[in-house]
Fold this sequence. Notes:
This protein is an all-alpha fold. The chain has helices at 11-30, 49-53, 56-71, 77-99, 102-126, 132-149, 163-179, 186-202, 216-233, 236-240.
Amino acid sequence: MCGLAPWQDDAALLTTSCQQLRIVRMVHNRRTYVDLYCERLAPGLLGEPLNALSNVAFFIAAWLVARDARRLRALRADIGVLVALMVIVGIGSIVFHTVATTWAQWLDLVPILAFQLAFLWIYARRELRWRPLAAAVLVAAFLAIALYARQFQEPFNGSITYAPAVVAIFALGLHHRATHPGETPFLVVAAGMFTVSLLLRTIDAAACERFPYGTHFFWHLLNGVVLYLAVRSLLGSAERTH
């Protein structure tokens, strides 16, 4: 029992050993090695160099948004929150693609979801001009759908998790295009690019035989552009006054 030899039948010793084994297993589970992508072949901080380095796209995107917001005198608190979340998304993804453990995976997933929820709230309040209750219902509904989608990890390499975000950004993009036809369709372009990046994320394992680095790093590079375009769409109201 609990991996002990048959002659270790002392009750106290058995209880103590079982408790110690459970503790060891708990620690091991928290540190479980995660290997989800083609580029990683073994544990180690340098196991996914392209997947890690490609997160620089999120930092560049955050800097570009902050620059544009300052130029348009539109760097309000809500835009500042989104810029900060873009940076946190990049940091969390770097940690996950270097450490590659289950706890690090949460640092990758949670900031992405936080950005999505924050963007939806801000867009609903700023562009749709919804009241707080209506915006909160929208955010809560999106959260519920996103969490439900997380259970469908197969097939498509877990990409179904991001299907609600694709639908949301397409819907908001079409709405923005209809209500502001004279503006650059940042959200529509972002929706199209997000679809391409999601496809590249999906085929990472399938492309591994022909392309040993995989395609996941393209997901990071393109999503940096997607986040920039999404937040840039919120600055349209400032451009209308210039």
